[in-house]
Design a protein that fits this description.
CATH superfamily: Cytochrome P450
CATH class: Mainly Alpha
Strand content: 5-15%
Number of helices: 16
Order of helices and strands: HHEEHEHHHHEHHHHHHEEEEHHEHE
Bound molecules: protoporphyrin IX containing FE
Shape: globular
Helix content: 40-55%
Structural class: alpha+beta
Number of domains: 1
CATH topology: Cytochrome p450
Length: about 425
């Protein structure tokens, strides 16, 4: 459990997280305890244990995030909840992001992918892959939530959302001038912008069926609609869940593609990239009662962490796990061993959209562009900040794993000549 109060937080934050968890697993087996970020935690590195927490006994483990982060995203966002409110909203979000619903925006995503690639290739400039992928996934998120949206709103949303993001991993204090304070101000501004958009939508009575319209038309069994705050929290929540995750996955896919130029089977590449990178390395729940699992007691109030990354990197389930091998997906993985989008009640409702936008972008990239990847030599490198950004977003940990050592993976896409 480490030192009192700080537990093993410093060890976790000063090492590659994969090494921290893998060493623990080697020493203590698939289920072990630790103390991080001020809380006692039980870590679970077996598919069965992850299923126990996320699926079979999901009602005994509630989602858990620091309050400061809940305030910033919006406390009514679906991923902070369990029970009726969660399952009703989840159905709504899932149906707005179903393949059927996404069909309507395929052409728009396609046009966005082409114009993004064209702009990155302009003037042989050097770009930061993760940063431009974030811009791309933000725009796709906007399309899925609002359909077509006025450029002035997009600009304002983008500007304020970036300030919120900066404050998300900062020390949560409400003193004017601090990143957290600025983020809370920007978050209120986001609500105002959304209120304006909603007002306009109501006046126009649009027939579009995007996520915003679903949220506006939502009625519970008693006929009660969602408040504007509930709508705003869920719009920001979905945007937040959609952006860094997809941008991280795309950045890793590019790295793997250009490490091995033969890997052009887009779908399998994507699956193997999601396994290798395990964007969401683990998730957190909190035991709502004392729970016994396999002879272990998980005390009420303890955090429980299913470790997706360890499961994805266990040679028992994925032979030679550190080797990028897209062909391993020619055979379906064993049940509950492949969970890049989670599992159970809170599994990612955006997974179809994420796969769609990744496939479209990669398709245009490999068919229309050639690449030169600038590296420090040898294989392409991903900056360490990449290890943590996306999962830290979900989990409320900050991304200090990479700070101070930031390096940029730089891509120069060049348009292929017609031949
Ligand atoms: C490669 C990209 C993505 C990855 C790897 C990913 C991964 C995940 C994972 C692992 C979870 C479960 C977290 C948990 O159990 O605590 C999750 C939840 C969620 N994701 Fe994604 N995600 C991605 C893209 C997206 C996109 C594009 C959207 C929306 C447009 C989205 C929306 C959500 C939402 C709303 C939840 C919360 C669901 C709930 O609590 O019921 N994600 N995601």
């Amino acid at each position: 459990m480490g030192y009192s109060y700080i537990g093993e937080t410093l060890q976790l934050y000063s090492q590659d997280p994969s090494v921290f968890f893998a060493n623990k697993q080697k020493r203590y087996g698939d289920i072990f305890k630790t103390h991080i970020l001020g809380y006692p935690c039980v870590m679970l590195a077996s598919p069965e244990a992850a299923r126990f927490v996320l699926v079979t006994y999901a009602h005994l483990f509630k989602p858990t995030y620091p309050k400061s982060k809940e305030r910033l995203i919006g406390p009514s966002a679906l991923f902070f909840h369990q029970g009726n409110y969660h399952s009703r909203l989840r159905k709504l979000v899932q149906s707005s992001l179903s393949p059927e619903a996404l069909r309507k925006i395929v052409d728009d995503i396609d046009a966005l992918a082409i114009s993004s690639l064209e702009s990155w290739a302009e003037n042989n400039q050097t770009i930061n892959t993760f940063r431009v992928m974030k811009k791309f996934s933000f725009e796709v998120g906007i399309l899925a939530i609002f359909g077509q949206l006025d450029a002035k709103y997009k600009k304002e949303l983008n500007k304020n959302y970036s300030i919120v993001e900066k404050g998300y991993n900062s020390f949560p204090t409400n003193l004017p001038g601090t990143a957290y304070y600025k983020a809370m101000v920007a978050r209120r501004k986001l609500s105002e912008i959304l209120r304006e958009i909603i007002c306009e939508r109501k006046e126009k009575r649009t027939v579009e069926k995007d996520l915003l319209i679903h949220l506006l038309n939502f009625k519970d069994v008693k006929g009660k609609t969602l408040t504007e705050d509930q709508i705003a929290d869920n719009v920001i929540g979905v945007l937040f869940a959609a952006q860094d995750t997809t941008a991280s996955a795309l950045t890793w896919i590019l790295k793997y593609l250009y490490d091995d130029q033969k890997l052009l089977e887009a779908v399998k590449v994507i699956l193997e990239s999601l396994r290798m990178s395990s964007i969401i390395s683990f998730t957190f729940r909190e035991a709502v009662v004392d729970v016994e699992y396999n002879g272990y007691l998980i005390p009420k109030g303890w955090k429980v962490m299913p470790l997706f990354r360890n499961i994805h990197h266990n040679p028992e389930f994925f032979a030679d796990p550190r080797n990028f091998d897209a062909s391993r997906f020619e055979v379906a993985p064993k049940p509950n061993t492949y969970m890049p989008f989670g599992n159970g009640a809170h599994a990612c409702p955006g997974n179809e959209l994420a796969k769609l936008e990744m496939m479209i972008l990669i398709h245009h990239l490999v068919t229309k562009f050639s690449h030169a990847l600038i590296t420090a030599g040898g294989k392409s490198k991903i900056p360490k900040e990449q290890y943590s950004t996306a999962h830290s977003q979900y989990l409320g940990m900050d991304s200090h794993l990479g700070s101070g050592r930031k390096r940029e993976a730089k891509q120069i896409p060049r348009k292929r000549d017609a031949s």
